[in-house]
Amino acid sequence: MQDSRSNNINTTEAKTSKQKMISGSAWMTAGSMFSRILGAIYVIPWLIWLGKDSGANTLFGYGYVPYTIFLSIASAGIPSAIAKQVARYNAVGEYKTSNKLFRQGLLLMIGTGIICFLVMFFGAEMIAKWTVAGKTDTLFPITDVAKVIRSLSWALLVIPAMSLVRGYFQGYQNMVPSATSQMIEQIFRVIFMLGATFTIMKLWNGQVVDAVTASTFAAFIGALFSCGLLFYYWVKAKPSLERNLMESRNQMDFSTMEIFKEMIATAIPFILVGTAIPIYQQIDQFSFVKIMTDSVGIATKTAEVTFGIVNFNTNKLIMIIISLAIAIATTVLPLITESYTNGKIGAVRTQVSEAIQLFFFVMLPAAFGMAAIAGPMYTIFYGYSANGEWVLIAASISSILLGLFTLIASIAQGVEQQKFSILALGVGIVVKMITQYPLVFMFKEYGIILSTSFGFTVSCIMIAMSLKSKLNMQFKLMLKRILLIILMTAIMLIVTLLAKMIFGWFLNEASRGQAFILVMLCVAVAGGTYGYLALKIRLADKLLGDKVAGLRRKLKIK
């Protein structure tokens, strides 16, 4: 009788955990996807007003890559670190400790934001010199690059503290504030960006550098509006948070210095892992143009335009699908931390398995689907380019590895495997640096994607083996389902390519308007095919929950 009751409790906990994972992932996916899609759509009018061959995307990328690294140093690890620690203390009823952690962390984030702002603002010219690698025949002089870098530095005053608030809500497994604040941040960022660009270029007949500078300053404007929405959620949640404080066990008491030490120790691995993609991009930024000009013999300006295709154009599009992995990783971290803190290793194994299966379930069709329609997709955002199409195909497939690293590195840190995650990242970066020159020399812009893929592959394998050993993971069922997902994706890919070929007889993918229609038709075919297969073989039920069965009945799929 007792065993039966225990099994019922475990089953209920597993269902609750899965429901939280699905719900949280849905909210984070919605917020992240909306932000990424809007962040890609704005490029269409933005490049029209600036000029397709103006080099604006390259200049934008020159500023954004170092900014992303500074932002990661200032705050990237904090939302995840706070979410992990808040979930950990809440799991044992120490709400007062988690609240104290939040308050002291807020001060720390304000401080790191100010420091990073000052370094980036006053060190802009030095960073710009590193960025253009000493070349004199570049599209933009060092002073222009420095101007863009300075305009981005202002966002560092706001975003670190804002990120901490998001992490605090995530620690309570409430993903709504993070998701909706991302949407608001992006909406107002894009409004300011497009408004400023149109005014400077069309009304004032201004310079490209001024429009790009205003565009990058929009990150600060968007962050301010996001903070306003988070404040609203904070006021709304305050009564509930105060009740938790009254129910706190209060058996732990840490000094401010101890809290700072714990927070920094927890955040550093997240910061390092969170900067993985920007570090890889920075390696590309420092080396690609130099290799192409010094060894391949291509003119600097031509190499910079090519680099803009890889670093800015395709990167914006693949980040839409990588955001799926980020959403799952953000959601699963507090769940795994809570289970691991309470010693429920069986629950952790289940959560890890479900998270990885969910990742492949959404990531594989998204990545290969984008690869299938890469040509018209690229045309919609940047205008027709045969080279852009092939680069996007390669980048789309490579995004699976970037997303997988994001997920399993987050899982590893949830089960106290921080040091190994950093080691795996370091080994991956070394692989990237070793393979960068020969691969770029042989395959030019595709060499960037290949060396990145090799680096992340090594890191993923290392972390996967570590998780298997740490949790005694059994991959048999998971691998069976992943193979099934691969088969479903392959069928979807074939059907989509056939549809693209048929529709291509009537629609010209070199025309932006016709390319849009072609993409919409192919997305409908791909989504319909994959959705039907997932419902037909009941895989969607297993991964997304019982509610999917109702959808199947409505669609009369037996």
TrEMBL record:
Q: Where in the cell is it found?
A: Cell membrane
Q: Which residues cross the membrane?
A: 21-44, 64-84, 105-128, 148-165, 186-204, 216-235, 259-280, 317-337, 358-384, 390-408, 420-440, 446-467, 479-503, 515-535
Keywords per UniProt:
Cell membrane, Membrane, Transmembrane, Transmembrane helix
**What is a single Pfam family found in this protein's UniProt entry?**
Polysacc_synt
State the InterPro entries in the record. PG_synth_SpoVB (IPR024923), Poly_Biosynth_Transport (IPR050833), Polysacc_synth (IPR002797)
Main subcellular localization, coarse class? membrane
Listed GO cellular component terms?
plasma membrane
Q: Does the keyword Mitochondrion apply?
A: no
Membrane topology reported for the UniProt record: Multi-pass membrane protein
Q: Which domain of life is it from?
A: Bacteria
The record, for PANTHER family, names: LIPID II FLIPPASE MURJ, PST FAMILY PREDICTED COLANIC ACID TRANSPORTER
- Please state what the protein is called: Membrane protein involved in the export of O-antigen and teichoic acid
Organism from which the protein derives: Isobaculum melis
